Amino acid sequence: MEHFCIYPRFKDAAHFQNYWKKGNGRELKEWSGAKLSLDGFEEQSQLYFQVDELGDQIIQDFYLNQSYQQASQRLENCIRKGIEKQNDVPESVKRLFGFTEKSPDWLDRDLLNIGAETSMRVGRDALITLRDYSLMGGYDYAYLNKPLVHTGALRKGAFKRLSETLNFWVNVTRKNAMNIHDKGYESAIKTRMIHSFARYQIKKHVPNWDVKEMGEPINLWDMTATSNGFSLILLHGIKKLGNEITPKEELGVFHLWKYISYLMGVPAGALPNNAKEAVENFYRWTSVQPPADEDSVFLAQSLVNESLENPVLRFQFQRNFLNYIHVSSSKFLLDDEVFERLELPKVWNAGFIPNTLKTGNKVRQKVMSREKLIEKGDKIQQHILKQYLEKH
Fold first, then answer.
1. How far apart are the first and last CA of the chain?
2. From CA 321, how far away is CA 308, in angstroms rounded?
3. How many whole angstroms separate alpha carbon 51 and alpha carbon 352?
């Protein structure tokens, strides 16, 4: 593999400076106690040119000599029954399960479950934050979205992407879901293969992919940023919506996503253990990311339109109100500059929904036990997922 070097090319750009000095970046810094510095950039940035080599080898050894569906079914058997009962798989597949079936020394399963319980406890707020802050805000990073563009995700539509992402997130954030052979463990490994297969397709069909500029497709550094979207940004968003999160719960969420990302091929040493490390890593990653481009705007508009066309809801007035909820939430959770770059629509009284959610959360946390909140939040999330999957 050709060796490339990169530097923090956007460290002096307005979008980078404004985010970290005036926007959500400043809030992240103040909350986490992070020290924003480019020290360590050279070492960390090498992840931009690194990928999940084992996953890619499995695509070559296992997926390309049969249909994708056949390979996925056989892999599913390995996940659910264990690799020791599978004799007809290549060495690369055996190495994968030799890795995933061995718990790392740093893994704390009690902390994993605290992270899962926290994810369930905040109910609908988690789904709003993931959609209107993590996902929508992620579209502002132009290069991060290029694999979506080149694998045809723009044509598939936002409803399909949301259904798949919601299904993955719910599967990996239930209690004990990351136990070996369980549903979350299965989802992490399947998603790992999806990433490697997508990279294979991009390498095959996009010969002009600019590795020096955009890094490898679905590279390990971008994967750490994606993990931050599910942990750091999720926590920031639900806190902004009035949810009180304990230090132990914060650590639980980061631990959960460290393990999920580790199973998906990201080195444990590249993943944060807490908010401080996450913000410091995120700061360095954002220094190489340009702001939204035409593809970013297209993805953002597609996500906005999804609620207006959502087949889960029967009547148009319901879809219009859902759209109002999501656009209002993005307006509240995103920086104004990001909101404008993505050309999101203006709505009347945009603060009404977020402020209502904040007030409701403060009341609920006073009158309901943590156990009851977890139970209710899980039911809400499972119900919404079921609605999406039935229409998927």
1. 39
2. 9
3. 43
pLDDT tens track for 100-131: 999 999 999 999 999 999 999 999 999 999 99
Task: Kindly report the number of other CB atoms within 10 A of residue 76's CB atom.
Answer: 13
Stated pTM of the model: 0.96
Q: Which tens digit of pLDDT belongs to each residue from 184-200?
A: 999 999 999 999 999 99
- Tell me the C-alpha distance between 283 and 372, whole Å: 37
Domain spans in the chain, listed from the N-terminal domain onward: 53-100, 103-391
Write the burial class of residue 114 (CB in 10 Å: 0-12 exposed, 13-18 middle, 19+ buried). buried
Single-letter code of the amino acid located at 385: L
Q: How many angstroms separate the CA atoms of 143 and 159, rounded?
A: 22
Q: Which residues of 233-256 are buried (b: 16+ CB within 10 A; e: fewer)?
A: bbbbbbbbbbbebeeebbbbbbbb
As a whole number of angstroms, the distance between CA 219 and CA 196 comes to 10
Both tokens assigned to 204: 């095959």
pLDDT (tens digit per residue) in 39-57 = 999 999 999 999 999 999 9
